[in-house]
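Aim 2 progress. For Biotin synthesis protein BioH, the working sequence is reproduced below.
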Amino acid sequence: MCSVKDEWHRRKRRVELPGGRPIAFADSSGSGPPLLLLHGYSDTGRSFAALEPFLAGYRLIIPDLPGHGESALGDGMRVSDFAASIDRFLAFLGISKFAVIGHSMGAMTAIELAACRRDDVTALVLMSASLRPDFGSMSPLSRGIRALRDPIDPAGHFLRDWYSCSRPVEPDFLSKMKRDAAAMPAAVWHGILEGFAETDLRRSAMRVTAPVLCIGGSADPLFGSPHREALAQAFPSVRSITLEGYGHNPHWEDPQRVSALMLSFLAEARMA
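Predicted structure tokens for this construct:
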């Protein structure tokens, strides 16, 4: 899907799920326990590139979600559809016990996955998540997404705002993220937006048995304090951290600090 091949794209592997639908992913091949990283809406596995060096003690499995990057679209564009595809992907790789880090839509996907694989998910880290991500049909954001048409301009006004951050982020990285996002067909943008309007993960959250860490930024323009408060009350075992002054992408804004929080939590989960 992406016309510009760089080192991140060149390192990807591909597996073909039933139905001839490939999933592209990076695998660090580390000797530690598996850690699945799920990116957000319009992103690719590149979203976790800055975190990767800090998580070297794990075997990092970083897929492009269906319809994103170089992964084919699956049976649908709802969070539950993405979770089902990732479940099949993990089965194909022969991975059973694993921890999960999810960002935004990837965090929602992680909740659904952990609810279905209660005995397999050992820990769950949710960044900038929401249980009910409906943006509102008449909001400026929803109207902006519905207005997208192919080809999407990676330097256009919409993606410039979509990838704005509350703290400085390396410009070349953001430029590559925008190119990846622009390569995603407008129909996929629209379909995911429609799926968000129908998404309610409260029941799924109640079924999660793994310990949960929620990380959110106080300046998150998409999922603010009501979303963070709902998450803090949703799981049987949950810890919630709000980073003051951080936006929707804290793992880009301060990967060292965010990875330290994750590693501490994952170590505690392994010892429990």
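The mean pLDDT is 95. This observation will guide construct design in the next reporting period.
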